[in-house]
Amino acid sequence: MDIEAFYDDATSTLTYVVSDPASRDAVVIDPVLDYDPAASRVSYESVDRVSAYLREHQLNLRLILETHAHADHLSGSRELKQRFGAARTGVGAKITMVQEVFKEVFDLPKDFPTDGRQFDRLFEDREQVEAGSLRFEVIFTPGHTPACVCYLFGDALFTGDTMFMPDMGTGRCDFPAGSAGDLYDSITSRIYTLPDDTRIFVGHDYQPGGRALAYETSVGEQKRTNKQLPADRSRAEFVEFRTTRDAGLSTPRLLFQSVQVNVDAGALPDPAANETRYLKIPINAFRPQPADPEAITEESM
After folding, report:
1. What does the pLDDT read at residue 285?
2. Residues in domain Metallo-beta-lactamase (predicted)?
3. What's the rounded Cα separation, in Å, for the pair 153 and 155?
4. DSSP states of the chain
């Protein structure tokens, strides 16, 4: 099994291509659609890089997987699906909970589906999935959002925003329906119970202290050295820490643009009567946020 990582510098996001060199079957995890908020302009550099890799290696894209409805970047899943017609999209079945919450936040049309039908596959907890010759297990890991999942391919676990590198810690839990207690339970009872040599591939890396990009660690390393949740930290301690830290974090700068696209499986809004597409930006939808320079560089933590 081959794993190729693509880093989007603008959002500090990792996209992964997992492939079988024998059959050339492949999946893509958490693709990015580039978006410039100042110009409100969508572009395709990130999708182009992934597409070029798939074509260069003559890979058969079977599935496009989302670990959750991202709050910091627009998903490139719809664009990839259009480019590779045989590919299907997949996400955890609890995406429906997130759709229900944000349908209200964005006052989406009454006929906006909240049953997850925008995605081709809704995965259940512990489901064993086949993507051509590739096999993986879906592991529900709620906390950052109620719909977060990890994907386990053999000894490789893709954690999305549930966990980051040990010197960064875990995902934040203050988005609607997030829960620090749930995140603690997800990590300690579902990730830390995997073999210590299980490789972990994270969804973001903000390169704290200016260190080089890093995105691969292990269960054993996380248990020993994760700065926010080492294996010996109690649930009460973590919940207090996470809740306090989240109260000081700034809102991700692409929160509203990202979520309304991502709950719709990466689809941009339909054009209005003037043939222009519009994103909705609610005013004072959530609590006021402090101007925290550290939080700006660690907006998804």
Report:
1. 78
2. 12-204
3. 6
4. -EEEEEEETTTTEEEEEEE-TTT-EEEEES-EEEEETTTTEEE-HHHHHHHHHHHHTT-EEEEEE-SS--SSSEE-HHHHHHHSTT-EEEEETTHHHHHHHHHHHTT--TT---SSTTSSEEEPTT-EEEETTEEEEEEE--SSSTT-EEEEETTEEEEETSB--TTT-B----STT--HHHHHHHIIIIITTS-TT-EEEESB---GGGPPP--EEEHHHHHHH-SS--TT--HHHHHHHHHHHHHTPPPPTTHHHHHHHHTTTTPPPPP-TTS-------SS-S------HHHHHTTT-
Confidence (pLDDT) at 111: 94
pLDDT score for 301: 56
Q: What is the pTM of this model?
A: 0.94
Q: Name the packing angle between helices 255-262 and 95-105 (round to 10°).
A: 130
Q: What stretches in the chain show pLDDT beneath 70?
A: 287-301
| pLDDT tens figures, 88-118 | 999 999 999 999 999 999 999 999 999 999 9
Rg (CA), the chain: 18
CATH H superfamily, domain 2-297: Ribonuclease Z/Hydroxyacylglutathione hydrolase-like (3.60.15.10)
The residue extents of the domains of the chain are 2-297
